[in-house]
Amino acid sequence: MRATLAEVAAEVAQAVNFAIQAQREAVEALAETAAQDSLIAAIRALHPAQRILVFGIGPSAALARYVTTLLSRAGRQAQALDASGIALADQLLGLRAGDAILALAYGRAYREVAVVFEEARRIAVPIVLVTDSLDRSLARHADVVVPARRGRARRVALHGATLVALEAMVLGLAAADGGRALASLDRLNDLRAAIAGSRHDVG
To answer: What pTM, to 2 d.p., does this model score?
Structure first.
């Protein structure tokens, strides 16, 4: 943040332009052939899973929960692994064969992501990793690595490209089983209508 604010000279207009340009560059990188190939490979790895567990802690926790909601709406069983510290153990306890891991992780190989990878390898479930900077000694254990830049190097982290990559994967999974996705959305709309109607029925 300090380097970013120095670059934009604490000017609001420059800060807005910096954020937009950095996000544009990161999203354009996703349009490159290699990046799109990784997204398609990720969808193929996740599609057969009975359940998708989305790992993300810290700033990525909100993204993990959001993607879990999108996956559920598309008819996929999904769960967020968003706890830090020993609380993550409770969330990992139910990891089982037939699951798949979608992990959001950047920077050093911190303990939580290392344990998630260790447990996934122990049970032999596929791992899709969304990153651009995770320690290679850990990233090499992922089945698919999706490159998603968090803005410019040594500047404030921006998560727009990560969100685009995640939404692209969710849409790809919906396309891979359109009947399931549409049935789930129809049921969601029925439930919404029932909830809206119940407001008038109480009393």
So the answer is: 0.89
